[in-house]
């Protein structure tokens, strides 16, 4: 079976008509500061999960809608509340699993926001607020698409649908694998749509076909038993800050490219993308040059990178004439697609141990590794997604790589090896996810929601 043109047109119109309602519901979700990190009010996560469950219940299509938690392996704790909604397939239709997450990053310094982070604000065609793009817009793309196909297809909606809205993606998805195992039977699907990625630009949809992995850890450097006066001992005694600065500098060469032996590079072509686009999308300051070698997108999609994302040091206002005995940094290494993340961590660890200056003592802790992902683009689900994108956006999609990581996808592959995985999203390059003034481009959101509704309708017309 194929989706006839009259129904396709009806679904597209229903999805388009539902955009105002979807945006209103998105605004309500953005107002909830659902941050999974323990330092923040955890009741907000419960409120957020309940709100998402109510939205899915309101579609009227599910056999079951629940807020559930799963155990965190190796601990006595449970993860954050997730939402699970399911309906069984009928008449030989396939089942699709729709994923997004309702937790968000902390807002950071409120003074850096042009409007309050948890007060949704529309300016110049964009909706500003923490989670407006990452990933509450993904939640509402799912809800809005389901509303549209349900309205048009009614009793002819035979597609099996499972919706899994996670509550701790920004905090490491610690219970993700256990949640999959606990609910494997109702989550098992023919197609999985992960709505947590981005697009080529504001007008052109992207189908993510590669993701870098990640090896994140804390490095503590020690050189002294106790702090000493920098005037009395400086020049003869290496403090931890000196050792750490010299050690970290060995991670990159003079071009800023990673200089760690054992980190792999993927050999794959990339689309045209010039330095002016990089500057516009990254906010690179005038006079500051890009780093690395070869095509810009190969550096972001196919090569490793290393970033220092945190540093325990004496703040400027509390500075004293003291040699620091120890300091800690958080190191985030992005791993080229195809390389095992644990193998990459081992390479970085070996490099740091080999280059520790002055005999500094090193300790590695809080190690978190997530594997990369490569999509098999030969499956029928990819073809259906590309067709839906072309109709929903009005232009053909671009296969894109993403420099960031979605480590839990490897859990999906392990638990559901037969499923075809589609990594999509509602973000554009100017969304500033994780940063102050995060925003959602409203026209991109409209096109993404319409495209997903068309995809669900096309899947409903297939038989297994």
Write the layout of secondary structure elements.
Layout: H1 5-17, H2 19-30, H3 43-58, E1 64-68, E2 82-87, E3 95-101, E4 121-123, E5 126-128, H4 136-153, E6 160-166, H5 176-182, H6 184-187, E7 191-198, E8 206-211, E9 213-222, E10 228-229, H7 230-233, H8 240-249, H9 275-282, H10 296-301, E11 305-312, E12 322-323, E13 326-335, H11 341-355, E14 361-370, E15 373-374, H12 380-393, E16 398-402, H13 409-415, E17 420-427, E18 439-441, H14 442-460
Parallel strand pairs: 3-6, 3-7, 7-17, 8-16
Antiparallel strand pairs: 1-2, 2-6, 4-5, 5-18, 8-15, 9-13, 9-14, 10-12, 11-13
Helix pairs in contact: 1-4, 1-14, 2-4, 4-14, 12-14
So, CATH architecture of the largest domain? Answer: 3-Layer(aba) Sandwich
Q: How many domain units?
A: 2
Portion in helices = 25-40%
Widest beta sheet: strand line-up: 1-2-6-3-7-17
Residues in β-strands, percent: 15-25%
**CATH H-level name of the largest domain... which superfamily?**
Zn peptidases
Average pLDDT, all residues: 95
Largest sheet: 6 strands, mixed
Keywords:
464 residues; alpha+beta; Aminopeptidase; Alpha-Beta Plaits; 2 domains; 6-stranded mixed β-sheet; 18 strands; 33% helix; elongated
């Amino acid at each position: 079976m194929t989706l006839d043109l009259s129904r396709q047109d009806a679904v597209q119109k229903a999805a388009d008509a539902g955009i105002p309602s979807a945006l209103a519901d998105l605004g309500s979700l953005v107002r909830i500061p659902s941050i999974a990190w323990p330092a923040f009010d955890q009741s907000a996560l419960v409120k957020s999960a309940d709100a998402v469950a109510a939205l899915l219940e309101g579609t009227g299509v599910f056999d079951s809608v629940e807020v559930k938690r799963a155990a965190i392996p190796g601990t006595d704790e449970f993860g954050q509340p997730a939402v699970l909604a399911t309906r069984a397939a009928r008449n030989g239709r396939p089942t699709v699993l729709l994923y997004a997450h309702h937790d968000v990053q902390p807002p950071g310094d409120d003074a850096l926001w042009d409007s309050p982070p948890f007060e949704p604000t529309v300016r110049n065609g964009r909706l500003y607020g923490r989670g407006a793009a990452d990933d509450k817009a993904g939640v509402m793309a799912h809800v809005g698409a389901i509303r549209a196909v349900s309205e048009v297809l009614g009793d002819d909606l035979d597609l099996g649908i499972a919706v899994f809205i996670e509550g701790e993606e920004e905090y490491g998805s610690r219970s993700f694998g256990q949640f999959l195992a606990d609910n494997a039977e109702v989550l098992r699907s023919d197609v999985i749509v992960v709505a947590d990625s981005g697009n080529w630009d504001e007008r052109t949809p992207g189908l993510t076909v590669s993701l870098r992995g990640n090896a994140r850890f804390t490095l503590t450097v020690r050189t002294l038993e106790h702090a000493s006066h920098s005037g009395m001992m400086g020049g003869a005694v290496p403090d931890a800050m000196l050792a750490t600065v010299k050690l970290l500098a060995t991670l990159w060469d003079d071009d800023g490219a990673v200089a760690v032996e054992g980190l792999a590079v993927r050999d794959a072509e990339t689309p045209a993308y010039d330095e002016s686009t990089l500057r516009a999308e990254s906010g690179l300051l005038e006079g500051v040059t890009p780093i690395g070698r070869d095509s810009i997108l190969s550096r972001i999609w196919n090569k490793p990178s290393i970033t220092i994302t945190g540093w325990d040091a004496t703040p400027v206002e509390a500075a004293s004439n003291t040699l620091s005995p120890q300091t800690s940094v958080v190191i985030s290494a992005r791993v080229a697609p195809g390389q095992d993340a644990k193998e990459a961590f081992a390479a970085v660890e070996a490099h740091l141990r080999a280059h520790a200056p002055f005999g500094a003592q090193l300790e590695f802790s809080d190690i978190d590794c997530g594997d990369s992902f490569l999509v098999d683009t030969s499956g029928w689900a990819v073809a259906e997604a590309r067709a839906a994108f072309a109709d929903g956006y009005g232009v053909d999609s671009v296969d894109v790589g993403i420099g960031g990581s979605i480590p839990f996808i490897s859990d999906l592959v392990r638990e559901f090896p037969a499923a075809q995985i589609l990594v999509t999203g509602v973000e554009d390059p100017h969304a500033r996810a994780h940063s102050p003034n995060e925003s959602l481009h409203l026209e991109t959101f409209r096109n993404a929601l319409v495209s997903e509704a068309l995809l669900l309708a096309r899947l409903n017309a297939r038989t297994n």
